[in-house]
């Protein structure tokens, strides 16, 4: 084995540990970036979707059968 001046066993060990830490940080950074971008897409879809107006919510309830026609007409008139 050839021993070079200035590089001992500790030098090789430190170089190995630092290389493992370097690649671990790179991999964790990529994972964090992917998760951030995936989360941003979902929140962007919700923000871009327009909110339903009270009349639309009332019409949806009527369409689902939660309220009858008289109740729908009475509440719609109150909203207007």
UniProtKB/TrEMBL annotation:
Protein name in the entry: SHOCT domain-containing protein
UniProt keywords, alphabetically: Membrane, Transmembrane, Transmembrane helix
Segments traversing the membrane: 12-34
UniProt cross-references to InterPro entries, sorted A to Z: SHOCT
Source organism, top-level taxon: Bacteria
Chain ranges of the SHOCT domain: 54-79
One Pfam family recorded for the sequence: SHOCT
